[in-house]
Amino acid sequence: MNEHLPARAVAFDAYGTLFDVHSVRQLADTLFPGQGSALSQLWRTKQLEYTWLRALSDRYVDFWRVTEDALRYAANRLGLALDDADRTRLMDQYLRLLTFPEVGDVLRQLKGSGHGLAILSNGSPEMLEALCRHAGLDDLFDHVLSVDAVKTYKTDCRAYRLATHAFNLSPREMVFVSSNGWDVAAGAWFGFRTFWVNRTGLPHDELGVAPEAEGASLAELPAFLAPRH
Amino acid sequence: MNEHLPARAVAFDAYGTLFDVHSVRQLADTLFPGQGSALSQLWRTKQLEYTWLRALSDRYVDFWRVTEDALRYAANRLGLALDDADRTRLMDQYLRLLTFPEVGDVLRQLKGSGHGLAILSNGSPEMLEALCRHAGLDDLFDHVLSVDAVKTYKTDCRAYRLATHAFNLSPREMVFVSSNGWDVAAGAWFGFRTFWVNRTGLPHDELGVAPEAEGASLAELPAFLAPRH
Asked: Is there a contact between A203 and B77 (Cβ–Cβ < 8 Å)?
């Protein structure tokens, strides 16, 4: 890794990378006992599928709407009677997800070492603002970037370009951090240096690119970013 | 439906619509007893995911490669030791899938009533040619259209446009038939009249468009296409 320029800025994916969607599963299981895991899994799968399809067909609607559409489908598919109140409660979880335990410390450490920090997410501006406020991270990021600015979704290169434009850096001067294998792969295609937060020990995606580094949490990121001696 | 022009041509999706991928599951279960269903399901999920990601990031490789990549990932993810011989056997299934029982009769009936017929598929030209030859359908289609001609995947509108260009028709003069809810939705976005082959009674996708008609098999398609009196 010594051949690389030191990374001047780091862009983080939000959902699953900084923010733990586990609380969605817990509430889902309270509402539909024994089905919480199936519901949250299918919800997430369809949420991503709908972002890809809408981006590819140029039919953008924002992530709040996509997330609600995906929830509706997942409940229908599983035969769960999801009333308006349940849907509202589940959707509201997306505004107050907790960060993973190491996130605050790691972000403060990177900020202390002079790195520019950004969120780069599919989430709508309102969703990301609510998340950051709820988690007390407002003052840590130089930029909170939503794909809504370009009305498409990852992995469209216009989404990733938001980060290089915000910092006025080339992709190789930045590190992109995501827990989503497909997101890390597309970030590498775009030209970012990449760090994969592989929290559950998944195999690499077979997309012809590998992350430059990976860790079981963000705790391993500062060492990766530190200049070598 | 009387307000529509009579459909002059019909474009069919291939995998799951005309051709049954069930034999893949059977072989997978022979190779990995008890895991065939999980393997074939994850294989298919990743295969589609990889087409969307590659199309969205403009990183096209053909469907044979995508299918093999997805198989490799699915086996890794499930912890299955997939050797070269197993992989070759599973991949070869994709060249000799059987048609669903009603397919031959329905296609011949539509051809007899003067409809133009096409396949419009993510499959590579070689894969589609092998499938049609194996199933004895060579002489029924006016066009066997592969997205390979435009180096992208559904749901990119350039994929659907292959069909309107081939017949020199507007989308509203054609019916697009697919068993994949997302494919039918994107076909409707493109402007096709759509018929959803909903073989397993799935709910509609929540993408803001509904198929014009649906049936549990292709058997209901000729009545839908017949001119009304």
From this structure: yes
CATH number for B21-93: choose from 1.10.760.10, 1.10.3210.10, 3.40.50.2300, 1.10.150.240: 1.10.150.240
Stretch (H or E) spanning B194: strand B193-197
Rounded to a whole number of angstroms, the distance from the CA of B154 to the nearest CA of chain A is: 8
Contact by Cβ (8 Å): A151, A195: no
Rg (CA), chain A: 17
Q: How many H-runs (helices) and E-runs (strands) does chain B carry?
A: 9, 8
Q: Would you state the pLDDT for residue B4?
A: 66
Q: What ipTM is given for this predicted complex?
A: 0.95
Domain B9-19+98-225 belongs to what topology? Answer: Rossmann fold (3.40.50)
Burial class (CB in 10 A: 0-12, 13-18, 19+), B156: buried
Residue where the block lists tokens 């020199």: B168
Nearest to A194 by CA among A59, A10, A5, A22: A10
User: Which tens digit of pLDDT belongs to each residue from B55-113?
Assistant: 999 999 999 999 999 999 999 999 999 999 999 999 999 999 999 999 999 999 999 99
B116-121 vs B9-12, strand pairing mode:
parallel
d(CA A68, CA B46): 23
Q: Where in chain B is the domain with CATH 3.40.50.1000?
A: 9-19+98-225
Query: Torsions phi, psi of A20, nearest 5?
Result: -90, 120
pLDDT at position A159 over 60: yes
| Residue A157: closest C-alpha in chain B | B57
State residue A227's pLDDT score: 76
Supply φ then ψ for residue A193, to 5 degrees: -70, 145
Could B157 and A207 be called an inter-chain contact, meaning their C-beta atoms sit closer than 8 Å? no
- Contact list, A45 vs chain B (CB under 8 Å): 45
Calpha distance A91→A36 (Å, rounded): 14
**Which pair of tokens denotes residue B115?**
């409809």
Give the containing element (helix H, strand E) for B75: helix B63-78
Q: What is the largest CA-CA distance in chain B?
A: 60
pLDDT digits (tens, 9 = 90+) for A126-140: 999 999 999 999 899
Which three-class secondary structure string do you get for B31-46? HCCCCHHHHHHHHHHH
Sequence-ordered list of residues with C-beta below 8 angstroms from that of B71, at least 6 positions apart, any chain: B43, B47, B82, B87, B90, B91
Chain B residues within 8 Å of chain A (Cβ atoms): 45-46, 49-50, 52-59, 61, 69-70, 72-73, 76-77, 153, 155-157, 182, 185-186, 189-190, 202-208
Residue whose pair of structure tokens reads 């320029």 in the numeric block: A5
> Which residues of A are marked as active site?
13
